[in-house]
Amino acid sequence: MNFETISKHPYRLCVHYANSGFDDPAGPRITCIAVLDKQTGQRHTFAPHRVILPTRGQVITEDEWDKAEREALSQFYRFVEQCPDVVFIHWNMKSSFFGFEAIADRFQVLGGQPVEIPQNSRFGLSNALWERYGDDYASHPRFESAIKNNGIGDAGFLPGGEEVTAWQENQHTIILGSVLRKAAAIRDLFDLAAADNFRTQNQPLQHHKRETPGRPSMMPAIQQEMKRRASSEELLPVLAQETRYLAQWAKEVFPGEQTPQPVSIGNRLNTLHRQLKKPH
């Protein structure tokens, strides 16, 4: 399968997941799986913490986590069973160490019976990019580098090691947001490559024709303007763009959930104005 073939396929799902780390004596546990439907934009998540819904300070035993993880994986495989004709677009999920086989093995350890996802229903984006653009399509770590090179929003994105730390600290919502962000990044990188707009590490950014929203990355620009002692009026466009990005990012990372309204531009300007008036 290639980009052209997959682009014409009627049912395409972008998938990614996180685990509790390869040093976890109980696992590694599957801490979250996120699936993004490319056609509808609908997001599906399967995570043990959404089964238990722990309250702050609640102590969850290993047996309870086992049961919750098994239920989350059962939900995932029921979902897979209902989607027999889809193609799963993934990033490097191709081994028993990390991938579809690792998820299946973990489910079997917990006493479950996984549903087979055939090889012809999987499209490895990282390998496809390597075949099209060569070994230097992105520097290591390739996923993060490809996202950065192509100007794709990375708000909420955590490297695997930080997802492990978040699990250890019971920061389950942070893991959820990270895995959803990665599924969205897979979608965006696929679309860029399919349209031949993918930017490798050796191409200038202006060759990238598609701007992908969702990254609240304007704070450095605000800080730079403050160092220049710019007026609050000059900062208004920067703040306006930041606020739009924050609102869009919140809707994408937490679909279907009530999210805080963006911070008022006026309030932000008032704060900045007071800071700008302070003497050196």
What does this structure look like?
This protein is an alpha/beta fold. The chain is 48% helix and 10% strand. It has a 5-stranded mixed sheet with strand order 3-2-1-4-5. Helix 4 links the parallel strand 4 and strand 5. Helix 10 (232-253) crosses helix 11. The longest helix is centred in the middle third of the chain and has 23 residues, at 172-194.
**Helix percentage:** 40-55%
Radius of gyration: 21 Å
Give the low-pLDDT segments.
206-235, 262-266
The backbone outline, from C-alpha atoms, is globular
Binned strand content: 5-15%
Mean pLDDT score, rounded?
A: 82
Number of strands: 5
SSE order: HEEEHHEHEHHHHHHH
Largest sheet: 5 strands, mixed
Q: What is the helix tally?
A: 11
Straight-line distance between termini: 61 Å
Summarize the structure.
The chain has eleven helices and five strands; from the N terminus they run αβββααβαβααααααα.
Write the layout of secondary structure elements.
Layout: H1 3-8, E1 12-19, E2 30-37, E3 43-46, H2 48-52, H3 62-81, E4 87-90, H4 100-109, E5 122-124, H5 125-133, H6 142-149, H7 160-168, H8 172-194, H9 219-227, H10 232-253, H11 265-277
Parallel strand pairs: 1-4, 4-5
Antiparallel strand pairs: 1-2, 2-3
Helix pairs in contact: 9-10, 10-11
